[in-house]
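Hey, quick one: can you model this chain's 3D structure?
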Amino acid sequence: MKKTFLFLALASIAITSCRKDDNEIVPEVSIETQNSYDDQAAQKFLETHYLDAKGNIKDLEKTDTVNVKLSKLNPVTLPSGVIYIVRPGAQPTPGKDIGATDILTMMSNTVTYVATNTDDVVSFNSAYPFKNTIGGTGTPEVDPAYYYVKESILANAPAGEPKQHSYYEIEGFQEALKKFKAFDIPDDSNYNLQGVIIVPSRAAFARDNHFNYVGISFRNRSFVFNFQIYKTTPR
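Sure thing. Here's the predicted structure for all 235 residues.
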């Protein structure tokens, strides 16, 4: 009887350790394999999506011969694995450089995914909304902590939470956003999204502890940012 209880307890622990956010039960792969999955899934994403007239990411039908897939919009891959696309004809002229600690005013629709291998097909799955001001308030987000967390937040962090920038910030997003320039337009301006940034999990939070932004774990999760920087203001 004791052996039975012990087996059930161990089985429960094993199942819990392998549970994904969407309640599927899958074993966690090695870091190296996850990194490979992230890269493969990102490439597939570029082949299966396009930008509409407002710059929103849309699914590309296999029979679509009109819209231009993301892979044809000159995506750039950085050494970190981060991919960014500067949308043609949607950039500020001349625009303003974005500083490392700036206060951003940003319109965006950002989704987080887990790259998985199902029947030898690697792709982004378990989509979960991270930020969507376009479909939400309709007004841009101001000073997101996942770009730069201000020192007052760190100083007043609850007991037990790390007082570290890496606990809040998405490094790959910071890295790629500096390849863009900011507009200087009012918050009530109609949006025209200027680009895409795909951040693999290793350039996001990987398997580290992080701030609870949306109520799920970002462990092994990649991020796809679809955005426009309305303003950037030195802190």
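One thing worth noting: Residues 30-233 form a domain with the Chitinase A; domain 3 fold (CATH 3.10.50.40).
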